[in-house]
Structure formats: structure tokens, C-alpha cells
Specification:
This protein is 32% helix and 14% strand. With 546 residues, it is α/β, with parallel strands linked by helices. The chain has a domain of 142 residues: Leucine-rich repeat, LRR (right-handed beta-alpha superhelix) (Alpha-Beta Horseshoe). The chain has a 17-stranded parallel β-sheet, with helices on both faces. Strand 4, helix 5 and strand 5 form a beta-alpha-beta unit. Helix 16 crosses helix 18.
Amino acid sequence: MSRNGSGAADDQSFAIISRWMHKTLIDWQNVLRLNGKDVFICEEYIDFTTNEDHFEKYVLLLSKYCPNLTHVRLLYSGESSDAKLEFGILKALVQLPNLKCLSLFDVPKTEIASLSSDFKQLTTLKFVGIAENVTASDFANVFGSMKNLQNVIYEYKSFRANQIVASLPNAINLKSLTLYYAPESEIKELRNCNQLEVLHLYIVDEKLAPDDFLDIFNEKRQLHTLSICLINEKLCVQLSKLDTYCPRLTYLTINQPLKNLGDFENLKYIRYDANGESSFFDTIKWIENLSIKYADRLEVFDISSAPNHTHTIEIAKLKCLKAFLCANWSSDMYDSLSQLENLQLFSMQGQSDNSNHSNALISAILHWTNLKYLRLPFDKEIFERLILNLPDVLFRRGFQTDSPFILSMANQNIVAEIEDQLKKQPHGNLLQLDWHGQIFAAKLKNLIASLSPSETRTEQEQIYKFPGKAAGDPFDPEDSWLSSMNYKLALKSCSNRFNLENDEELINRCRHFAITNAEYDINNMKSAFNFKYDDIDKQNIYPDTE
């Protein structure tokens, strides 16, 4: 994000912004004039120091200069000293014409009422905890008034009953629901949410009885995506009975490899996410069962988090596979895997200790006539061998320079000498190196989306970094793009003093790191900063407009 307040612009732009990034509204006006179109998410931490008037003026600037701002995240302090305050922050957001997604953390009851009257354009609502005095009945009017609401994400911070699920039938166009750590009483209420097309349940309460578990799926005729993390073996067994309740199920993510998965007629995607939970069942037996029932329908199979003993010839029987993601693969098994004639994407998570691995892989690529995307963990020796030999194989397969083969390495910086080696190869332009794995990830996402009929897909294109779970996402409830929320918490936990002269360079450096990389250690931030929002806002005079 450019900064012109001090006279020097650094030409930086950020998709995620927060008010603390610049001192005054005049600074913000200068910045947003240049880079406002790049902003997709705005965040704010709210407590007794938040000045409503200043915030409203700040939002007015966003409405003028940020046409692509579709998502706002508000984190309320949750402290008892702030709980009785009559916050009016939400009302200011009505000024944002393109707001589609609202994420609220520890929202007080006084703010819930604003949702029912002012936010009819929202398509997505996310809650991470709510005040203890907020109940499902408080949400009834909210959901009833939001005719465009399609997606709800809720993370429970307590196991009390009557929090939100009972009010969801009022959201008549609700398609997608994500629940984290839902208590038994809330899970049971899902039996009345039969309009759902997408359901993600993380850590289902182990006290839930098997009959109650089946009851929540009894009328889910429209459900096409199910992601479910179970810690109760008796509930895992019940999954095999869902094929009669959910005939349209296309995507399934589970944390247990079941011996009998059932027979889902439209199932095309399966992801096994171990998620740190021990397995009740034998992975090999599970794959053998899949190869019998799903040989002619399964197109994407992701067992990248499965134990290493998943090497089995049974996978070669899944003739329709277009994408296969595994933990690792032994070189002596590539002959069987090369029988997957429709394979377009192949990913291996771990390193191979076999010196013959690169030769076996190159031989398999020659037989995979449809393979165009390969993702491997970076190993300099293996990649040097691939660079030397793979271009000739691609030439024999008929690849063209305008559509090269993609070799991906997730989270790997460019290795210049390997790039130079590739340029020296006669057919090196037939191979493109994807150092950060972004091309592979995008192609996999597109393939996954294509498996479901277009009329059943949840509209997410207009929501930047959709906070719900889609097929292919891990179970983990943490937002990988959390950006500055914990960062601001660290700032607020520091002393009241703000020494701009000493800290400005450090703030700029850490600000760029935090927002760009979205990863940082809150403990380090606590020792690095010492200011509060009231210090930032003291010069906030609304700038003159041109």
C-alpha cells in the first residue's frame, strides 16, 4: 500500500488492510487513491478505545476508493470491561456498496440487532464465538432478513445449547454451513436444515448417539459436499449408511479410512485428512474397498496425509482418476500406477530414499499420456535428473511451448542454477518450473470445481478468501490468511506509549511482513510494539475531497 503522508511513496499494495497501517485519514486518502482497487479485506480490532466517528469516516474513504472490498473482519475485545459498551461499529459498514462477507469475532449482543436491518446484501457470515447472552432466537430475525445469505461459518467457544443452529432454517437460501466444535445439542438441530448443499463438521461431539447422527442426514437430498471429522468409532461406521440419505454427494472429506464407505452413486472426490487423529481402520483395506465400488467414478483421490503404507496396486484399478495426491510412492510401484491413463495431476508429499526414483518417475510420465502437472517435494539431486531427462520425454509426448508441462515445488524459492540448466536443454521450453506450487494448486482447484454440476456450486467468486471450507481444504479451523488480527492483539497488549520516532521503521518493516506473508509470532510482536488505537486516531480529521 503506498504511503504519501511523509512525502515518500513505497508503491506497496495490500489485499488486506487495517486502520493501524497509516496514522491519519489524510494518509489513507493518499494511499487509497493509488491502490484502493487492490483492497479485498478490511480488519478492525474493537474495544473501548475505538472511536466510532473516526471509524465511520475511515469506512467512508473505503467506500469511495475500494470497489473490490467485499470482506470485513471485526474482532471485538471480549473483555468484561467492554461488554456493556453500546458499540455501533457495524452500522458504519452499511456504506460499503460491495460488502458480501462479514466475519465477527466475539460479537456482543448489542451489535446483533444491526445485522437484521442493514445487511441484506450479505452472502456470507462468519462467527467465532458470540457473547454468552446471545441465543439462536436473537439470530432468527437476522437470518430471516438476509435473503441473499448462502454461507454461514460458526466456531463454538462454549458447549452451551441454543446458540445458532435452531435459527438457520430462517435463512431460506442457505447453501453452505461450517461448524467447528459443535456440541451435541447443536448437531441434533441440523436435522431441520435440509436445504444444505455443503456441510463441514469439525470434531463432532463424541456423545452424539449413532441414531441421532443418521437423523441429521435423513432429508439431505441436496447435499453434494460433506467434510466431517469424527472421533467416535461408532459414528464412523454410520457413514456407510449415508448413501441412501445423500444421493447427490460428490465430494467427501473424512478423517478415518473406513472399511465400508457405502455406495454413493455420484461420488467423484475423496480426501482422507488424518488431522493428527489416530485411525481406527486399516488404510489398505479401505483402498481395496474403494477400488471395487468406485473404479468407474472416482476422479480425485487425496491421501497425502495418510500413513506411508498406502502403496498398493489397488489404486491402479481406479481407472477414472484425474488427480492423485499421496504421501510418497516407492519406485517399484510406478509400473502399476502408470496404468492410470486419465491422470492429469500427480502430487507426492514426502521424499523418496530410492536412488532410482527419478528414472522410475520419468518412465511413468512417458506412459501417463494425459499428465500435465506434477508436484514433488524439492530434492536438488532428483530435480537435476528430471531437468536433464524430462524435456526429451515431453518432446516425444508431443508437448508444445505454448502449453508446457508443469513441474511444481510447493513453498520452494527459485534455485537459479536449476533454472539455468533447464534453459540449456534442447527442449527445455517444454518444461515450466512452478517454484511455489501455485499453478498446480490452481489447476487442482479448477478440476475439483468441475466435478459438480454448475447449478450446485456455491457462488464464492465474489468473496475474497472465502472463510468457509471448500472441497480440498484441510479440516483445521485456523484461517491461513489471518493477516493482522493476532498482530493487532499484540499491539493492544503493549503499553500505552507510542514513540513514532523510534518505531516507525520497525513498524513499516513488520507491517509489510505481516500482511504479505500472513504468518508471524504473536510473542515477538508483543515485544516489538507499544501503541494503541487512540494514539493513531488523534490526528484523524476527514480529508477534503476533490
